[in-house]
Structures are given as structure tokens and as C-alpha cells.
Amino acid sequence: MRIWFSLLSKQQRIWMAASLIIGILIVVSGILFEQKKEVRNVHVTVDMSIKEAAKKLGVTKKSLARELELPLRVPKKKSLKKLGVPQERLNQAAHHILSHVSGFLKYYIYLVLVLWGLVFLARLGKPDNAQSKKDRRVWYPRAVYLMVLFIALAAAGFALGKSPNPMEGIVKVFKSMVGLYPDPLNKVIAFAFFIVLAIIGNKLICGWACPFGALQELVYSIPLPKKIKHYKPPFWLSNSIRIIVFALTILLLFGITGSRKGLVLYHYINPFNLFDFDFNEHSILMTIIIVLIMSLFIYRPFCQFVCPFGLVSWIAESFSIARVQVDHNNCTKCGACISACPVDAAKGLVEKSKMPADCFSCARCLNICPDDAIHYKFVLQTKRGKKDEI
Ligand code: SF4
Ligand code: SF4
Questions:
Q1: Residues framing ligand 2 (Cβ under 6 A)
Q2: Each residue of 258-300: pLDDT tens digit?
């Protein structure tokens, strides 16, 4: 990393200083403008009706009913006691609902982490004074990436809790559609925010800012004993499973399978609960443990096999304004980037696949090519280059 830093040009150092200062200013303004997360000591009792308790908790009646595992059509004016809800269950539901009350500071942090990722990948990773292919090992030092991941995990995860997060962003839009939230527009805006961050640079929000993504990436970065190899599941398999889980969620949520309407599958496997230490459902703790063990051997298993935002941002990748690109005039198809890539993304790029796997902008492929044929660039830059060649 020291060599990388020493080879940065003056202009790159200015970029680095400016992005650090801007990042700090964004976070400071986030802290200043943060409407202090009200410490909501909301007290609800089973003598209240669903209507009264939901109003106090700031959610819809349906949402509270679902939280209490009651049918959505349950009488909303009857007291909870008469509906058979014990006080302990109500307290748990209230705790869970209030844990979703999110401040805005985390949005600022996501924005800063994504911008840092973009500046590093597009401008700083390859030092201007190390153009020679021989120096490529010092390009894109991993330590920078790992440092940002630790910040994502600490700040956007453990310090500020589970909400908001990209996965919740999409799930809440669908929950609003069955009336589980009183403010659907806010949910759509939050989702749009995450999608914009995914489009700015190939899934940068997942690769550089999502706290659970960061945790999986850090676990995967732990070196394995020589005899054990990482496993790269084929993309058709991981994506098919992710699509099936998503489709099943929609069927259950809308009650199409004949089940209780409003059932949210992700609620039972939401790994972001880790950041609130909220393991109300045993299945959540089990999911986290299984995912973290799998992460030792498989790259981001939750993202690849389950996360609905992973699926949607994979579709959004086609619109990314900056991304990993292969220069097919120089590429000799030696396969170095394909071996370095923890998923099938580089393979898809080299083979010009119409549906390449998710690229998490992890930069592993960017300093490996012996022909310097793989770069992180703005799409417009490439288009302009092609026009110049003509
Ligand atoms: S795909 Fe992974 S990194 Fe992206 S939002 Fe889901 S858990 Fe986070
Ligand atoms: S190694 Fe694979 S996932 Fe990482 S940036 Fe390169 S293509 Fe994307």
C-alpha cells in the first residue's frame, strides 16, 4: 500500500484529499441534520385495540396484525387481550417495529462509501506513475478495500443498527403494496436511493457499503488452509435459487399460495437483524450462522443465493455508468481475471455473455491481467474512445 501511495500523481493525491474531505463533510452534515431519532418509549398494552396500538407505534393496523401473527382481517377494534395476544408477544412486536424506525444518517454514510468506492476504482486504484504492466501488482491495493469494508460494517452496521439497508429497501416497497406501511411513497424513495447507488458504479452499494455484504466479504477474505479451495457456484444455479426465493416471497406476501396474506419470508431470515442483536426468530440466528460459515468457502452466499436487492441490482447493473470493462482488442483470453474473480462475472465479461453474473466491484480482477485489458471505467469514456478510433 505504501508503494501504491508513493506512485500516486499529484492530481491523484488531490482527488484523494478532496474525496476524503467531501466524505467527512457529507457525514458531518448528516449528523447535524439528523432529526434526532426519538427515543420512543411507546408503551402499548393488551387492553388496547389493534387500531389504538398501531397508531401509537406509527404503523398500519395490518402491519401490527402481521407482526402479531394474526390474520390481516382480524377485528381491529377489539382489545388485543380478547384476541388472545399476551403482553409479552405485544412487547416483542413493538420492539421489532420500533427497531425499523430509521434515522437519515445512514443514508449519508452509504453515499460516502459508494463515492469513495467510485473514486478509488475509477481514479486512484491505478497510480499514474505506475503505468508499466510490471507494476500492476501494486494497483488497487486490497488494504484500501478492506478498510472501507470495516467502516461499512462498523458505521452502517453495528453503530447505526439494521435500518435502513438495501435489502429492506426493496422488501418494504412490496410490503407497502399489501398495506403494511402507511407511507408507500417514502418506501419507494428509499428504494430508488439504493438503486441509484447501484447504478452509479456496478453494484457499489453492495460491494462497498452494505454492512452484511461487507461482513461476508471480510469472512471470505480470511485465508483458507492450502488444501481447501474456495467454491464458485455456477451463476445459473445461484441466480435461479435467488429468483425462486424472491418469487416465493411475493406469492406468500400477496397470499397467492392460499396462505395468510402479508407473510414476509425475509422476516424469518433477515441477517441484518444482527446489527440490532435482534434474534426474535431462531431462524434468523441460524441463517446468520450458516451464511457466515458458508462465506468462508463461497463468495457472499447470501447475496448470490437469497438477497432480493442482490437480484434487482443485478438487473440494474446493465445501466451502471461506471463498471469493469474488458478491452477485447487486447484480451488474449488467458483466463487470469476469470480465476481471480470470486464469481462468474469476469467470465461473463471476457466471453461477452448477454447475462454476466453480478459484479460486486471488488477489484480483484483489475491488477491481474498480463495484457492490461481489464479496467474500471465510465461507460461514456469507452464510447468516446471507440468514436475516436473510428
Ligand atoms: S446483495 Fe448482499 S451486499 Fe447487496 S444488499 Fe443484499 S446483502 Fe447487501
Ligand atoms: S473480480 Fe469479478 S466481481 Fe470483482 S470486480 Fe472483477 S469482475 Fe467484478
A1: 324, 340-341, 343, 345-346, 359-365
A2: 767 778 888 899 999 999 888 878 899 999 999 999 999 999 9
Roughly what angle, to the nearest 10 degrees, separates helices 166-177 and 235-253? 40
Residue matched to cell numbers 455484504: 213
Q: Are residues 67 and 86 in the same domain?
A: yes
Residues 238 and 354 in one domain: no
pLDDT > 80? residue 102: no
Give the number of the ligand closest to the Cα of residue 145: 2
Specify whether the CB–CB gap between 72 and 65 falls below 8 A: yes
> Ligand 1 pocket test: which of 303, 359, 360 has the largest number of ligand atoms within 8 Å of its C-beta?
303
Q: Answer yes or no: do 364 and 252 share one domain.
A: no
For residue 58 the three cell numbers come to 406509527
Which domain, by its residues, includes 82? 50-99
Residues 244 and 376 in one domain: no
CA of 245 to the centre of ligand 1 (A): 15
Q: How far apart are CA 389 and CA 51, in angstroms?
A: 67
Ligand 2 pocket test, pick from 360, 366, 374 with the greatest ligand atom count within 8 Å of Cβ, gives: 360
Amino acid at residue number 34: E
- The candidate with the shortest Cα–Cα distance to 261, out of 177, 185, 191, is 177
Q: Which ligand is nearest to the CA of 202?
A: 2
What integer pLDDT is reported at residue 149 of this predicted model?
97
Nearest partner of 212 among 200, 220, 222, 224, judged by Cα: 220
pLDDT value of residue 385 = 63
